[in-house]
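Format is chain and fold; as here:
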Amino acid sequence: MTPLAHILALPVRAYRLLLSPWVGHGCRYQPTCSAYTLEALERHGAIKGSYLGAKRILSCHPWGGHGYDPVPGADPEFDAEHRCDHAHKDHPDA
């Protein structure tokens, strides 16, 4: 993890240690948003990892998504399936 990513991970780690036990375990996603953000920072660095983490957190609301949503690159099978789904939807003959 880059030094900047380490710094950006500190508030996430503090949340997991101090606030998460009080908030409860009703996360809509697997992995949880905090775990996702830490993995995104580790895998993709400070800039892209922060973007991915913020995007995930902003989608965590009653009208947002839910279910299994790994960090890009963490599950190649999942990435390949979803890349194919998007390609078929964008194809004019589909």
